[in-house]
Design goal:
It is a single chain. A hairpin with a 2-residue loop joins strand 5 and strand 6. The protein is globular, with a radius of gyration of 16 Å. The strands form 2 sheets. The protein has a 6-stranded antiparallel sheet with strand order 1-2-3-9-4-7. It has a 3-stranded antiparallel sheet with strand order 6-5-8, with no helix packed on it. The chain folds into 2 domains: 65 residues, Orthogonal Bundle (434 Repressor (Amino-terminal Domain)); 97 residues, Jelly Rolls (Sandwich), CATH 2.60.120.10. By secondary structure, the chain is an alpha+beta fold. The chain is built from 5 helices and 9 strands; from the N terminus they run H-H-H-H-H-E-E-E-E-E-E-E-E-E.
Length: 182
């Protein structure tokens, strides 16, 4: 079973354990039923924001959905350089969870690596707020159809209810820190 199909199975299992129909959960999470079904059947193109939303809804850690392992730390977690929970969602787009063993997080810190590509990522919407800080290279962030270019050292804080997406800008890979808080 692939990593994506395992994530899809965990989402389905959480829904079934909590006795929700696909229709009820899609409506409650404010997403299209067919989109929800695709997430649950294959795990393909599941935005990290959706996984965060499901985790919050069912009171589990994102790490549990992503890896099947419960978070257990309550005081602190150290992540050394280059480490973190690898999360592959889209080609050319790789996340590393930076607090995956910390239980009951109030925010989700992620290091995101982007490869140059001509394909734009689809926009996502989720509850809460998001902070992005560019560590290396340049990214183009789309906020409600407006493109904003950020270079190394630049940051942006925004309402994540606004349709948004990040892409590598230019020919060099980019690296940015994303912190999602709900």
């Amino acid at each position: 079973m692939s990593e994506l199909s395992e994530i899809a199975a965990r989402i389905r299992e959480l829904r079934e354990i909590c006795e929700y129909s696909q229709e009820e959960l899609a409506k409650e999470l404010n997403i299209d039923l067919e989109t929800y079904r695709k997430y649950e059947e294959t795990g393909t193109d599941v935005p990290i924001s959706f996984i965060y939303q499901i985790a919050k809804k069912f009171n589990v850690d994102c790490s549990e959905i992503l890896s099947g392992v419960s978070s257990k730390l309550h005081t602190y977690q150290v992540i050394r350089a280059g480490e973190g929970q690898a999360i592959k969602r889209y080609p050319g787009y790789e996340y590393k969870g930076l607090a995956y063993h910390f239980s009951n997080r109030l925010m989700q810190p992620l290091m995101v690596a982007l490869d140059p590509t001509k394909t734009r990522t689809s926009l996502s919407v989720h509850a809460g707020e998001e902070f992005n800080y560019v560590v290396k290279g340049s990214i183009s962030i789309t906020l409600d159809n407006k493109d904003i270019i950020l270079n190394a050292g630049d940051s942006i804080y925004f309402d994540s209810n606004i349709p948004h997406g990040q892409n590598c800008y230019g020919d060099e890979p980019a690296l940015f820190l994303a912190v999602i808080a709900e």
